[in-house]
Design a protein that fits this description.
With 151 residues, the chain is an alpha+beta fold. It has a domain of 94 residues: Alpha-Beta Plaits (2-Layer Sandwich). The longest helix is centred in the first third of the chain and has 12 residues. The model has no long low-confidence stretch (mean pLDDT 92). It binds iron/sulfur cluster (SF4) (2 copies). One iron/sulfur cluster binds next to helix 3.
Length: 151
């Protein structure tokens, strides 16, 4: 009899709706309002690659040793250089990094002996084209410039 009354009075439905409405108070909302509110990423998050430059002279820290390219299991880094006859060192000419194939394992930055290559906390890597996902040296040095929305 009680079960029948519950069915007639839609008690289960009302209980379910009560749970729903009770959790709709703004203090219970956990959805991040991205891009208006930017999420905090974990300290050890590995995101957009960056090719570091020396802040004192603006020159790249990369010594063109190619170790990052050799360490990469995806073979997505290509480093080219020319031998400088005066310094007898290799001067970096191009550096490409295909972010579309990267799994952000960090093996490349671990292999770099001079901390030139770094996976930063930038996470906005989207591009409208496949070509846009292949970063050249300039892009790697300047870093991504995502649109910052204010409203
Ligand atoms: S993070 Fe991993 S997959 Fe990406 S470039 Fe470095 S070594 Fe390759
Ligand atoms: S391992 Fe470091 S120094 Fe060597 S080529 Fe890669 S980024 Fe440059």
């Amino acid at each position: 009899m009680i079960a029948l009354l519950k069915k007639i009075l839609l008690v289960d439905l009302l209980q379910g709706l009560w749970v729903t409405f009770r959790n709709q108070h703004p203090k219970h909302l956990y959805t991040e309002q991205y891009p208006l509110e930017r999420p905090k990423v974990a300290e050890r998050f590995r995101g957009a690659p960056r090719l570091n430059i020396n802040p004192d002279n603006g020159e790249t820290l990369c010594i063109s040793c190619d170790l990052c390219a050799k360490a990469c299991p995806e073979n997505l880094i290509v480093v080219t250089s020319v031998r400088n006859e005066q310094t007898k060192r290799k001067d970096l000419t191009t550096f490409t990094y295909d972010t579309s194939r990267c799994m952000f394992c960090g093996l490349c930055e671990d292999a770099c002996p001079v901390d030139a290559l770094e996976l930063t906390q930038d996470f906005e890597l989207a591009s409208y084209t496949r070509e846009g996902l292949i970063w050249d040296r300039q892009m790697l040095e300047e870093g991504p410039k995502p649109t910052r929305y204010t409203r």
